[in-house]
Amino acid sequence: IPDHYEAALSSVLIPHGVIMDRVEKLAKLIVQEATGPLVVCCVLKGGHQFFADLVNYIKKHVTRGGKSVPLSLEFIKVKSYNGETSGDVKLSLTDEECREFHGKNILIVEDIIDTGKTMVQLLTKLRQYNPESVKVASLLIKKTPLSNGYIPDYVGFAIPNAFVVGYALDYNEYFRDLDHICVINEHGKEMYAV
Ligand code: PRP
Ligand code: MN
Ligand code: MG
User: Fold this and answer.
1) Hey, where are the domains in the chain?
2) How high is the mean pLDDT of the chain?
3) Contacts of 5 (CB under 8 A, 6+ apart)
4) pLDDT for position 66
5) Between 20 and 30 A from 144 (CA), which of 53, 112, 116, 155?
């Protein structure tokens, strides 16, 4: 834990090594189930670390398994949170860029499903462009009464209803530079308030 975050955290929920082991297992499963080219789509910003590690492990297991799974990489910026409140989803891709999804097998890579609003809205948008298939890998799914019931195809960990940061998950843009997934404390929320 870097010094600048020490006092802001109440606990380490998932250590980096445990995250990496789980990401490798998910990559293996994704490779096993893949039937051809995949468009791996990173949901920025929170998804970037999981995306980077997952793609690396997918490459490793494709090579080992002697499978043919060419990857193309796509990046979508989605923003729904201001502090802790989830609102409407803003998508960064143009109509033209989205048309590239037609007929493709898409794997969306996200850091966390909280209320599920972001993913449901994103899926609704992407499906309008008639991809062949859309699957979702989310590192985390939060157990919360605010959930809309959405469950991704691949899940790393189900976590309790706490505000977690690290491994690219942020609180007001901070804590993305933390390797472990941690629970932020009240002091941390004050320290990094906007
Ligand atoms: C967070 C998180 C997910 C989404 C989950 O993103 O990374 O994308 O919220 O919340 P939901 O299930 O309640 O919709 P955020 O909007 O904070 O943007 P960021 O990824 O750039 O931090
Ligand atoms: Mn996000
Ligand atoms: Mg965020």
Assistant:
1) 21-160
2) 93
3) 175, 178, 182, 188
4) 87
5) 53
Q: Which of 102, 124, 110 is nearest to 40 (CA)?
A: 110
Whether 114 is catalytic: yes
Assess whether the C-beta atom of 115 lies below 6 angstroms from ligand 1.
yes
Q: Taking residues 60-85, report their average pLDDT.
A: 83
**Mean pLDDT across 181-187:** 97
**In angstroms, what is the span from residue 13 Cα to ligand 2's centroid?**
19
Per-residue pLDDT tens for 46-60? 999 999 999 999 999
From 114, 153, 170, 177, the catalytic residue:
114
Q: What percent of the chain has pLDDT over 90?
A: 85
Which value, to the nearest 10 degrees, does the dihedral of the CA atoms of residues 54, 60, 65, 67 take? Answer: 70
Phi-psi region of 149 (alpha: psi -120 to 50; beta: other; left: phi over 0): left
Q: Is the CB of 181 under 6 A from ligand 1?
A: no
Mean pLDDT of 39-46: 96
Per-residue pLDDT, 8: 98
The total of other beta-carbon atoms located within 10 Å of residue 190's CB is 9
Determine whether the shortest distance from the Cβ of 176 to ligand 1 is under 6 A.
no
What's domain 21-160's architecture?
3-Layer(aba) Sandwich (3.40)
